[in-house]
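job 3f2a | input accepted
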Amino acid sequence: MDANELRRPLSVPEILVNALCQTPERPFLHLADGTVLSVGHVRDTTSRFVQALAGLGVGRKSRVATLLSNQPEVLHVTHALQVLGAISVPMHGQGSLEDHVHVALDAPAEFLVFDPLRFSGRAAELRRCAPGLTLLALGEDANAVDLLSLARGYPPTELVAPKVAGSEVMRLGYTGGTTGKPKPLATTHGAALATLQIMLAEWPWPSSLRVLSCGPLSHAAGAMLLPTLLKRGTLLIQPRFDPVAVMEAVEAQRITCMLLVPRMIVGLLDHPRFDEFDLSSLETVFYGASSIAPTRLREAIERIGPVFCQFYGQSEAPMTLSVLHKEEHDVGDLERLASCGRPVPWVRVQLFDPDMNPVEDGEPGEICVQGPVVMDGYRGDPERTAYAFRGGWLHTGDVAIRDSDGFLRIVTHEKNMIIKNGNNIYPEQIEDALGSHPAVRQVAVLGVPDEASGELIKACVVLRPGAELSADELCQLAIAKRGGLHGLDFVEFIEELPLTAVGLLSRKELRTHYGSATGHRPRRPRRPRR
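job 3f2a | predicted structure (530 res):
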């Protein structure tokens, strides 16, 4: 008897295959055009893609990049790669050519599966830059194999998941590049399994699960698929985030669950047709990936309901390091609404100072993590990996304060901290203060170089339609809420904040376009004479 095999945990591919082979008649995927695909249809289509990809040479540990729209084929291809034991290398549809070329060469990718309706030109450019790349199109394309037609030619066969070690790489992801060139990080099968288990255990899933997915399926939104399948729910796929389409779908399909990033929540709240739709079926709205102004979150709770649940994690330790549960969203406590919750019991989380000493409650420290969800390291970059794992912990780069009840509140990322006249200033705290003004729709704060002070404080502000606000008023608000050290030196009113391909604030683009001492110079309030 092989004792190791007897007690070997099931991998994510094995769990997937088991789930796809149960209740084949059950409706599962709802497409935007009204088409409904059963579990059995998804299983059989996955089988066809497995055979087609294997026939083209995709096998164990093959590196397969994907550049796809929000379409059901994303899921079929992703499933097929898991069943084949291949390594998925997802590219974001809104990424730049420079970033895509970097991923293709750095991985290096052997195959590229792409949507020819959107990415035919980009795929051709990528093959010119990476001549060894084999192009596989989900449809007709002059420069690629038609993978979709090829898959349709195979009869469905039994799905057989590979036996993989927990240490084997399942996904080679690239960070969004908010502060620099995308970094390659390896997610193992063991980390993927732990992430799934934590999501199932710690996230409050509605009992009648009808999920709407409008984010990129190749990234975080795709993580909703397997939990929905395991909990016998249905998944409605929309091609992109459109506020009206989302609200129409929630009302018509009685959606109970969504995963949104903060900009999507704000987009719903600020849409002029918001009050036309019945969103009362929503039981849980998961949100994460970036912070949201506490005042906007309070508004969302008041207008949509107490349905919001925040998860905190990062690509290096995905999805769930901490959770702020629905009942913990106290609309009377803005500091609580600024929290990312308490650590889940599946990981070890500690706040350290720069010398790796644990900090006391109320003092800022870097969030550091140990546990099964932690990445395997930055591929091909031992120095960066060693720096990320110094002291035996994964250093997230996020600086947080823990209160006496154990709730974490992120005050900045270490690279975003402003040092003015020797004082450490956390831009997120100023953003929360300025975001409390009813005229402010979005705001981002950054440091700009200054010879005398080191850095000065600049706010880039997006006002709500028709609103008026002066730089002086904003400066006074920052001082009133956060103290004199946080007074603004410059204010620039802009149309929109720059975003990354995954919808997060791009600090890199912000610094490129607005990182100079320009804009309105507010007058500081005079100190009263003694």
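job 3f2a | The chain has three domains: 39-188, 203-413, 418-514.
job 3f2a | closed
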